[in-house]
Amino acid sequence: MGKSIRTTAVDHLFEAVLTLEDKEECYKFFEDVCTINEILSFAQRYEVAKMLREKRTYIDIAETTGASTATISRVNRSLNYGNDGYDLVFSRLYPHIDEK
């Protein structure tokens, strides 16, 4: 069995994130906590997931986001076999996107 991310430290991080009130506060916090490349990687994976849910092709996604096919495949696996975190957010932000 793999490592669990459920730790006190992660709880504290998520509690901190939940206090952020707007996009500007998110920028301030995440720019302090993460490297620029980490933020850009998170954003890229999010865009890949959104485009996969929109039924876009791997080629289109790779060309649009710059993501490798390996990254697209990993995100697709998360969408199909993960904890439904992407779909939770998508259902709130983009109710028109087809789920699974």
From TrEMBL:
Lineage: superkingdom: Bacteria
One Gene Ontology term of the molecular function aspect: DNA-binding transcription factor activity
PANTHER family with a match to the protein in the record: LMO1763 PROTEIN, TRPR-LIKE PROTEIN YERC_YECD
Protein name: Trp operon repressor family
UniProt organism field: Parasporobacterium paucivorans DSM 15970
